[in-house]
């Protein structure tokens, strides 16, 4: 199993970023996919999840209405569109899949600063 995140960077408050997570090594369309984030000095926290066939997504209250999770099963990729970014959204963002004990990508840094 391999998960590779990309798309992070520096953005001003109110700006947008689109994160991608390319998955391999498992049958992508058979699994829920998750985004988590971890800010310095804080625990890793759930951000969003999406069902196998892009069904009903779930979001943390802190990002609801601003972030959108989506997936392309043909490309084995899950996305996180982040709009109206706030300073408190700054973190390393990870995608994850719950196979066995769980797998994580290496993370992609999101910095929100003016």
Highlighted features:
four-stranded antiparallel β-sheet, mainly beta, 114 residues
**What integer is the average pLDDT?**
96
pLDDT < 50 stretches: none
How many β strands by DSSP?
11
Give me the secondary-structure category: mainly beta
Biggest pleated-sheet summary? 7 strands, mixed
Order of helices and strands: EEEEEEEEEEE
Put simply, the count of helices is 0
Radius of gyration: 13 Å
For the terminal residues, how far apart are their CA atoms? 37 Å
Please state the overall shape, judged from the principal axes of the Cα atoms: globular
Which percent range describes the beta-strand content?
A: over 45%
Please state the oligomeric state of the protein chains shown: single chain
Question: How helix-rich are the residues, as a percent range?
Answer: under 10%
SSE topology:
Elements: E1 2-6, E2 9-11, E3 17-24, E4 33-38, E5 45-50, E6 58-59, E7 67-72, E8 77-82, E9 91-97, E10 103-104, E11 108-112
Parallel strand pairs: 2-11
Antiparallel strand pairs: 1-3, 3-8, 4-5, 4-9, 5-6, 7-8, 9-10, 9-11
Structure overview:
By secondary structure, this protein is an all-beta fold. Strands 2, 4, 5, 6, 9, 10 and 11 form a 7-stranded mixed sheet that branches. It has a 4-stranded antiparallel sheet with strand order 1-3-8-7, with no helix packed on it. The mean pLDDT is 96.
How would you summarize this macromolecular structure in one to three sentences?
The chain is mainly β. It has strands at residues 2-6, 9-11, 17-24, 33-38, 45-50, 58-59, 67-72, 77-82, 91-97, 103-104, 108-112.
């Amino acid at each position: 199993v391999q998960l590779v995140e990309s798309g992070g960077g520096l953005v001003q408050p109110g700006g947008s970023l689109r994160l991608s997570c390319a998955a391999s090594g498992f049958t992508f369309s058979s699994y829920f996919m998750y985004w988590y984030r971890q800010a310095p000095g804080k625990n890793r926290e759930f951000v969003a999840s999406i069902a196998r066939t892009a069904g009903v997504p779930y979001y943390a209250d802190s990002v609801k209405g601003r972030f959108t999770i989506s997936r392309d099963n043909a490309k084995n990729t899950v996305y996180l569109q982040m709009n109206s970014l706030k300073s408190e959204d700054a973190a390393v963002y990870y995608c994850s899949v719950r196979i066995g004990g769980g797998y994580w990508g290496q993370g992609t840094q999101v910095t929100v600063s003016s």
